[in-house]
Amino acid sequence: MSGDKEKDKAKIHKLSLKGSSKTVAEFFEYSINTILFQRGVYPAEDFTAVKKYGLNMLVSSEDQVKAYIKKIMSQLNKWMIGGKVSKLVVVITSKDTGEHIERWQFDVHLLGNSKSSSKRKSAEKSGTGDKENTVPDNDETAPPTAAATVTSDKTEKEIHDEIQSIFRQITASVTFLPMLDGNCTFNVLVYADADSEVPMEWGDSDAKEIKNGEKVQLRSFSTSNHRVDTLVSYKLVD
């Protein structure tokens, strides 16, 4: 009888982890779109309004961008459910100079799991949109983050309230981030465990750090199984 109870607990945990992974992956998808819109990487008319998290969110309606994000999310969902992702990074790069101007970093922590994202062996993977040949930077050191507080199961509303706060911060970031000059492009990097199965169209990448950049720590959100910390780095205007 006790064995059956243990099996039931394991099933519940897996379902919980899968649901949590989906929540984090969805957050990443809307984060990528929100950053592209708020930072003016693509024209405002290329975005469509949708309702999510009790907010009006803007998502790209441009076919190439949609296809790129869809390809990233398809793989990210698999890695998230497998507990393989420690970080997702959105890098905005000048098309004119090839210089990285902004870097949005989302650190993923598995709560109640010994594989902390700062200690696990991970590899940086870049999506198919990365056409750069940059010189690899030094290994990245993750920024200090507050100690995780593992709480009881959170309601969907509590999680959405925390996510709302992050998107409001991303929107408000235009008040302190330098205006992006000229044409820009973006890349998405996913830090996945070294033993992760990687599709052919994904390739290894350097960290695409901002040289001598400023860093601002934004809010975090957590589910029952994950915590996500948000950090933006940007190049100071001379």
From TrEMBL:
Domain of life per record: Eukaryota
The UniProt record lists the keyword Cell membrane: no
Start-end of Low complexity biased regions: 141-151
Main localization (coarse): nucleus
Start and end residues of each HORMA domain: 18-232
Region Disordered, annotated ranges: 117-155
A GO cellular component entry from the record: cytoplasm
Biased composition (Basic and acidic residues): 121-134
One GO BP: cell division
UniProt KW keywords: Cell cycle, Cell division, Mitosis, Nucleus
Subcellular location(s) of the protein: Nucleus
PANTHER family named in the record: MITOTIC SPINDLE ASSEMBLY CHECKPOINT PROTEIN MAD2, MITOTIC SPINDLE ASSEMBLY CHECKPOINT PROTEIN MAD2A
Protein family (similarity comment): Belongs to the MAD2 family.
UniProt-recorded name of the protein: Putative mitotic spindle checkpoint protein
Organism encoding this protein: Viridothelium virens (Speckled blister lichen)
